[in-house]
Design a protein that fits this description.
mainly alpha; globular
C-alpha cells in the first residue's frame, strides 16, 4: 500500500463528493434522464444505499423513506417492480430484499408487505424455478438466465427460505453452464463472460458446492481480464470497464484468488474514473458518471481492501457486517 499513499489528489478517494452525488440523484426529477431510467429505480436505490454503507455514511439517505419506497413497489403476488406501477421481476425483487436486509427492515415487510410478508416473496421467487432444468425465469414471460438463478438463491437465503426451491437442480444447471476454460456462460454452451461467471460462482457458494469449480483454471481466466491500463474487462478483446471490478474481483474473492491480479494498477485505474469535484465514478476515465459504475467501482475498492472503504461480502454484494448479522456470524 505504500506506493498508493503518495497518490496525487485526483487519485484519492473523493468520499465526500461521492456521498453528495448519491444524495442528489433523487432530486433531479425535472431532468429527462431521471424518467427514462425509471425502470432501474429500485436497483438504483440498492446501488446507492449500499455504496453509502461502503463509504461509511449509512445514514446519508433517510431510512424510512427508502423502506416506504421499496414496499410501494410490491405486487400482490409478492414480487417487486422497478417502481410503483412496473411489473414484478426477479431482479427488482432481489434488490428489494437486499435493501430491506441492508436496512434491517424485514420486520416492516412482515408488517406492511403484501400477503404473508417474507413467505409471499419466497413463494413468488420459488414459482419462477423451472422444475425440469432447475434454472429460473426472470418473470412470468419466461426468459431464463443464470442471473435470475443467482438472484433467487441470494434473496431466498437472506430470507431464510432456501428450502422453498430445488437447490440441487439449480446446482446441476450451473454445472452444465461450465466451459472448458473454467468459466461459465448464461446458458449451457454459451461463451464464458465475467458477469455470468460471478452469478454461477456465487450461486455455487450459496449452495455450498464450490467443490464443483475448477479454481485454478477459472482464476487464470479471470486474472487475464486485467488489461494494460490496469482495469478489467468482461471477456477477451474487450475494453476495460469499472463495473468489472465487481464481476471479476467478486469471483476471484470467492475462490481466494484476488492476489492473482495487480492490485495497485486496478486501484489507480478505478480512482482515475472518479469525478472528484461532483462525485461519482464512470466506466473509464473522463466519461460521464452514473450510480451503476459508482457502486461497482466502490465494491472493487472494498475487495482490494482500500483504506476507508467498508468490507463487502463477495457472495451477496452487501456489507460484510450485514451478512454477518443475517447469518449470525461473529468475529
Amino acid at each position: 500500500m505504500s506506493k498508493l499513499q503518495n497518490l496525487p489528489d485526483e487519485l484519492q478517494l473523493a468520499t465526500s463528493a461521492h456521498v453528495k452525488y448519491i444524495q442528489s440523484l433523487d432530486t433531479k426529477k425535472d431532468e429527462y434522464e431521471y424518467w427514462i431510467t425509471e425502470h432501474l429505480r429500485l436497483n438504483g436505490l440498492y446501488w446507492g444505499l449500499t455504496a453509502l454503507h461502503l463509504l461509511r455514511h449509512p445514514d446519508a439517505l433517510p431510512r424510512d423513506q427508502a423502506v416506504d419506497f421499496v414496499l410501494s413497489c410490491q405486487h400482490e403476488n409478492g414480487g417487486f417492480g422497478a417502481a410503483p406501477g412496473h411489473d414484478a421481476h426477479m431482479l427488482y425483487t432481489v434488490s428489494a430484499v437486499q435493501i430491506l436486509v441492508l436496512l434491517d427492515a424485514l420486520s416492516e415487510l412482515e408488517k406492511r408487505g403484501k400477503g404473508n410478508g417474507k413467505a409471499q416473496v419466497g413463494k413468488y421467487i420459488a414459482g419462477l424455478q423451472n422444475q425440469e432444468t432447475g434454472t429460473f425465469a426472470g418473470d412470468e414471460w419466461g426468459e431464463e438466465d443464470t442471473r435470475f438463478l443467482y438472484g433467487a438463491l441470494n434473496a431466498l437465503s437472506l430470507l431464510g427460505l432456501l428450502h422453498l426451491v430445488d437447490v440441487s437442480k439449480a446446482v446441476d444447471y450451473v454445472a452444465a453452464c461450465a466451459n472448458f476454460d473454467g468459466g461459465y456462460g448464461v446458458t449451457p454452451g454459451a461463451e464464458s463472460h465475467s458477469g455470468q461467471i460471478f452469478t454461477c460462482v456465487a450461486a455455487l457458494a450459496i449452495a455450498g458446492r464450490k467443490d464443483l469449480i475448477n479454481v485454478n483454471k477459472l482464476g487464470g481466466w479471470l486474472s487475464e481480464r486485467q488489461v494494460t491500463l490496469g482495469g478489467l474487462n468482461g471477456r477477451p478483446e474487450k475494453r476495460e470497464d469499472v463495473c468489472y471490478n465487481w464481476w471479476v474481483l467478486g469471483s476471484l474473492a470467492i475462490i481466494d484468488r484476488v492476489h492473482w491480479i495487480d492490485r495497485e494498477k486496478l486501484i489507480r485505474f478505478t480512482l482515475s474514473c472518479q469525478d472528484t469535484e461532483n462525485g461519482g465514478l464512470s466506466d473509464r476515465p473522463d466519461d460521464m458518471v452514473d450510480i451503476w459504475h459508482t457502486f461497482f467501482g466502490l465494491t472493487g475498492l472494498s475487495l482490494l481492501k482500500y483504506p476507508g472503504v467498508e468490507a463487502i461480502d463477495p457472495v451477496y454484494c452487501l456489507p460484510k457486517y450485514t451478512t454477518d448479522r443475517v447469518f449470525g456470524k461473529t468475529g
